[in-house]
Design a protein that fits this description.
By secondary structure, the protein is of the alpha/beta class. It contains 9 helices and 7 strands; from the N terminus they run H-H-H-E-H-E-H-E-E-H-E-H-H-H-E-E. A 7-stranded mixed β-sheet has the order 3-2-1-4-5-7-6, with helices on both faces.
Length: 250
Amino acid sequence: MSEEHHVVDTATGEDAPAEVSEERVQHIFGAIAEQYKKFNAVSSFGLYKGWLRATVDAANLAAESDLLDLAGGTGDVSYMAAQRRKPAHVQLTDFVPEMLAVAKKRYQMGENNGVPFDFEVVDAQDVPYDDCSYDAVTMAYGIRNIPDRMKALSEVHRVLKPSGTFACLEFSTPPNPVWRGLYHIYLKVMIPFWGWLFTKDRPSFVYLADSIRAFPPQEEYAQMLRDAGFKDVTWKNYAGGIVAIHTGTK
C-alpha cells in the first residue's frame, strides 16, 4: 500500500495547503445545502437518480450490511440504499454540518425506509471509526473535493472489512474528444448559470466546474485506488464518461 500523500488545490489539481480547499468546501457546500438536491437533478437533466441506483448496486449491500456513506452530503446515496437494498445500518457522514442538517430532515420525513441511520460530521481524511468495521463504503461527488485524496482512500480501505466494497461515484473524463469538448463547454457555461439561478452564488459553481475539469481521468483515479490497497479495481462510465462509478474490494 502506498503511503505517499499528495495534497492539492481541488479547483486546479496543483499542490496547495489542505486549508485552501477545506475552507472553500465548507463555505460553498454550507451555502448551497438547501438547494443541492434540486441542483443535481436539474444540472444532470434527471440522470443522477440512475447514477445513484447504480452506485448503490455496485456497493454489494446485503440485509446484514453496515454501510458507511462518506462525504454523504444531503444523503442521496444513503437514502437510495435504504430504499433499494435496506441494509442493517447506515452511518451517514459529511464534512459540512449544513449538508447533514438537510439529510437529517429527510430522515425525519421517513426516507430511511425503516433503516437505522446515524449522522456525524466527519473529515474523510481522518475517519474516526475502527479498522475493519464496515461492510461497504460509498462516496458520491466527494473525493473530488478532498485535498489529500490518497489519505482519504487509505482511510476507506482501513475501515472496510475484508472483502468489503468501496463504490465511488464521481464526475470524470469523457473518452470521446468531441463529447469531452462539448461537456467542458457545458461545465464552463451552464453549471455557473444553474448555480446562479438556484442560489445567486455563481462563484461557488464556477469552482464546481473547475474541480470537475481538474479531477484525474478514470485510469489515473483507478490507479490511486490500487495504490491505496484496493483489489479488483474497475469502473463503469455513464453518460459517455461524464460520470464514472469506480469500485474496489479490500
